[in-house]
User: What shape does this take?
Amino acid sequence: MTSSGRNEALDTENARLRAMLAHAEEVSELEKLQLARTLHNEFGSALTALAMRMALLARQPADAPGAAEQWAKANAILAGLTRTARQVQSELRPGALDVVGLKMALEEYLADFGERHAIGVTLALPDDELALEPAQAVALFRMFQELLTNVRLHAGASQVQASLALDGPARKVTLSVADNGAGFDAAACDLQRSHGLRRIAERAAFFGGAMQLDSAAGQGTRVAVTLALANPSPNHRSTDPLDN
Assistant: This one.
């Protein structure tokens, strides 16, 4: 390669990295905005309702008619706040990911997703453990979250089939999420206008992987992400720029 060719390739790579970092900042701000809305809409209104109930109870004798009902409603609000807090915590960093690994984290998150949104879910997992870098495991989990968010917001699906498949000889792992929803024309999909899919594609590319999209109107959607397996190294510090 000539010197001008190397410079051109370097400029192209630098431009790609700048675009990825700029998008990472955009994603970070969008996620902060979503978290702020969750805290405002769910925590704010629930705390206001709880404060009103407690104020009513404070003005009543413990054995006053209706006091038990008010206490029950106050406890129900507290239970809802606890569920929301756990959900927010899981979105920020799933505890199972650090404690028992990616497979259990995916299983717990999908089960909770199906229960919260009344969607039937199935998950196929490999028997073997995965030789993933910690950053790869986090990236796969974030992409899983993003895919399920897309299902919830856009698919109108009643069923989701997910899988994590291990190809030992090829040293690859594939995460797949398929739904039976509305679908769309995949050939006409512009990733630059689809923040969720663009995030997934860029995360996959950062780890040397790829995203495959299959969809058609009325036939549901399947998205698969394939990453190369790597032996964890204590000296390796690869960090997903979209998870900062």
Observations:
- The chain has a mean pLDDT of 77.
- The chain has two domains: 3-89, 120-243.
